[in-house]
Amino acid sequence: MDLRYLNAINLLAPARPDLLTKLAERFGEDWEKAWHSSELKSYLGPKAGSPKDINPDKEYKKLERADIWITTINDSLYPPLLKQIFDPPWLLYYQGKLEALTKPCLAVVGSRAATEYGKRATLAITKDLARAGFTIISGLARGIDGHAHRATIEARGVTVAVLGGELATNSIVQENQTTAKQILKTGGGIISEYPLGIEAQQFTFPQRNRIVSGLSKGVIVVEATLKSGALITARLAAEQGRDVFAVPGPIFSNTSTGTNMLIQNGAKAVQTATDILTEYQTTYTLAKPVVQGNNPTEDKILATIGTDTRSLDEIIRACQLPAPAVIAALMNLELDDKVTNLGNNRFILKT
Fold first, then answer.
1. Above 60 in pLDDT, residue 9?
2. Of 102, 115, 205, 221, which residue is most buried, by most CB within 10 angstroms?
3. What is the pLDDT of residue 286?
4. Crossing angle, helix 296-305 and helix 323-335, to 10 degrees?
5. Torsion of CA 231, 139, 91, 13, to 10 degrees
């Protein structure tokens, strides 16, 4: 199989599994033959680009320079669970490793405008799922997605991101650029069904979401408004026969209206990772690692924060230490990756 021509055809009509299936049946996966065939244009349709505008060799070299690989639906590397959905992508572009997708996968998704509550719930639940051996799937978007990927990395787990556009920096929001690099360094992967040159657009994200749910045994929605894309992922998961979980939230919080509605409609309510692990009869001790400071001041601060979120003022009052000493100790604890500043000087243990 000559992937140069498969990539070129996908550039002319991106993310069209129906088209590629028809061409594979017609030309027996001889993509070079399909590319040069006079029939190609009739398969592509009037809205597709012209083969004259694309150099298959040149476009494929762009993939090689970017360390982007291709797997097709008939390859052994192709995720087996994804094959089971109604409209699986015919090919996937990927960076990093796909081996993580051979393990049981769970998707963690939610609002781009994550609240402090959503961040904390994502960190706590995702870390325990990663420690239990699940590969965590998400979309590397702003908000809950990014926190899910980072929580997995912090727990020394493996995570895979699914993009809604080409495998390039312009498909990843600025705040998650470093996270993308960490995903690859820690044995995970970044995948897309879109070739280089196809940027993410509004309509590509629902198409991406079917892959997020399709890769996963279940989908956990942490926060979502009633119009959130995360609810699209939840609906697709249900249609694909996957489990849907949702984290309940305050009734006055707009970002919990979607998750509360999912629970009303039959999704399983999740308060801890144990609620999910019991569904899959996974045995795992959810004991948190003990976090210790480097001196008595740091130990006192860590004990004060405990399992809760504390503001700087609360820590200073509880510790009965001078403000400069507490601020300096918190800075050192952040540098040592033991404490996270959630914003507005509110701190939580990083476990």
1. yes
2. 221
3. 54
4. 80
5. 70
Per the structure block, which two tokens stand in for 112? 């781009």
Say what the pLDDT of residue 307 is.
Answer: 65
pLDDT of amino acid 51: 84
State yes or no: pLDDT of 289 exceeds 70.
no
135: closest CA among 166, 108, 109, 167?
108
Amino acid 351: pLDDT = 60
Asked if 30 and 158 touch (Cβ cutoff 8 Å), the reply is no
pLDDT for position 275: 94
- 84 to each of 39, 89, 140, 194, how far by Cα in Å? 30, 11, 24, 20
Region of poorest pLDDT, from 40-54, 177-191, 210-224, 275-289? 275-289
- 311 or 243, greater pLDDT: 243
- What is the greatest pairwise CA distance in the chain? 81
Please state the pTM of the whole predicted model: 0.82
**Mean pLDDT of the 204-233 span:** 95
State the residue for tokens 């994502």.
122
